[in-house]
Amino acid sequence: MNDTTALTALESEFWPPNLTAAIEPPVTILKKAAAELSVRTNQVLEGRVQSSPARIGPGSLPKFFEISFQVRAPSLSNYTVELFSVQHDSRLYPVTFAGDAVEEVVEDGDQLQAQSDRELTDRLRVLLATAHVRKVISGLLAQTKET
Is there a contact between 110 and 85 (Cβ–Cβ < 8 Å)? Predict the structure, then answer.
């Protein structure tokens, strides 16, 4: 290829032709679950998702993404609690869960992971139904009635 030959949008000298995403990113799935909480509680509680690249050491490039799944109670001075977090690298999956709700569904020392977007959705349903999550949600709802 010489300097006067331009590549079209579908041609490439180096890259394969199909670079599109075929899976749903974890952050998108978590945002859907967060939005559903807001709807189910008539905005009394707000589901929130905070995503950020995480570094292993100072000055290093980010090695993975960390996503925090939170619940905020606007009427309680925006009190916010993290229900759990997930981590993944640039390949998106596997996703590894962490937090108090996770401890309820795994044995000591085990990790809760999801290998795909479908598995993440299944694991999320289990986590959101744990006693820990239910207590947090019901406690916040009870407190908002007092304000």
Answer: no
Give the β-pairing of 95-98 and 113-114.
Answer: antiparallel
Buried b / exposed e along 49-74 (16+ C-beta atoms within 10 A): beeeeeeeeeeeeeeebebbbbbbbe
Q: What is the pLDDT of residues 86-131, one digit of tens each?
A: 999 999 999 999 999 999 999 878 899 999 999 999 999 999 999 9
Cis peptide bond upstream of 74, omega within 30:
no
Per DSSP, what are the bridge partners of residue 41?
A: none
CB 23 within 8 A of CB 34: no
Rounded CA-CA distance 97/66 in Å is 10
Alpha helices in 44-130 (DSSP H): 100-103, 117-128
Q: pLDDT grade, residue 4 (50/70/90)?
A: very low
